[in-house]
Amino acid sequence: MASPEQIAQWMRREVAAAGARGLVVGLSGGVDSAVVARLCQIAMPDGVVAMLMPCHSDPLDEQHARLAAEHFRLPLVRADLSVAYDQLVGALQAALASVPGAAARQSDADPRSRLPLANAKPRLRMASLYFVANRLNYLVAGTGNRSELAIGYFTKYGDGGADLLPLGRMLKSEVVAFARLLGVPSPIVEKPPSAGLWLGQTDEGEMGFRYAELEAYLTEGPEAVAPAVAMKIERLVRASEHKRALPRMPDPDRRPEAL
Fold first, then answer.
1. pTM, 2 dp
2. In this structure, which CATH number among 3.30.70.270, 3.30.930.10, 3.40.50.620, 3.30.470.20 belongs to the domain 4-89+120-203?
3. What angle do CA 4, 35, 33 make, to 5 degrees?
4. 200 vs 146, which has greater pLDDT?
5. Distance CA 47, CA 132 (A)
6. Tens of pLDDT, residues 37-81
7. Which of 179, 183, 181, 167 is nearest to 71 (CA)?
8. For residue 196, which of 87, 81, 107 has the smallest C-alpha distance?
9. Cβ atoms of residues 157 and 130 within 8 Å
10. Do residues 167 and 145 touch, judged by C-beta distance below 8 A?
11. Are the C-beta atoms of residues 149 and 240 closer than 8 Å to each other?
């Protein structure tokens, strides 16, 4: 595993290659974003901005985000997206009401409606990060790690939208080890991982298996976990292939079929 300084050097090279001036990162209150924020600070001491973007969020997440920013003395800006989120969702639900078919008329109580509502939050945060990055000529540093990327545990064009993924080669356990090495405050390191999609949501509860099981699968193979867990992981990998690739395009070598 690379050292913090090696990753920071890579980040500096990427910023220079893009002709950018710095890095912006969203602070969620979790361990991944705290580690990325500190790496951004090491890479660009005079060119880093951390963004706090609550959106009907758990107050503890903001408390931990502020704890990380204060601990590392990071420049922190706050944009409450709750009102913008409510207006966006209201406009979209009003538009969907005119679409024929039962699927377009799901109520918020329908479990199938919860995910689109939850995914709108990271997508709104992505747009906010890129607004700030564009204004400052910065790059957006994402917080995804190898464990999450492997199974598509991120929102497409949401928290998956970034210019750099400093933790993209690290398993979750390696991120936690990095956090301890970098001095991330223990309340952040020790709390259960959560994407903050809704109150009480946890990563492992939503995935249906533990990070340790996922890492055993990724490093040792399917035989290292229970068959049921291996099947869940493989199903998630297949279903999320589109998240790790560019949008599909027609094959240039195939002739269009005759109409």
1. 0.91
2. 3.40.50.620
3. 145
4. 146
5. 13
6. 999 999 999 999 999 999 999 999 999 999 999 999 999 999 999
7. 183
8. 81
9. no
10. yes
11. no
pLDDT digit string, tens, across residues 203-237: 787 788 999 999 999 999 999 999 999 999 999 99
Residue closest to 28 by CA, chosen among 60, 70, 4: 60
CA distances from 241 to 118, 205, 235 (A): 21, 22, 10
H/E/C letters for each residue in 94-142?
HHHCCCCCHHHHCCCCCHHHHHHHHHHHHHHHHHHHHHHHHHHCEEEEC
CA angle 120–135–133, rounded 5-degree value: 50
Within 13 Å, how many C-alpha atoms sit on residue 79's CB side?
Answer: 16
Asked if 140 and 25 touch (Cβ cutoff 8 Å), the reply is yes
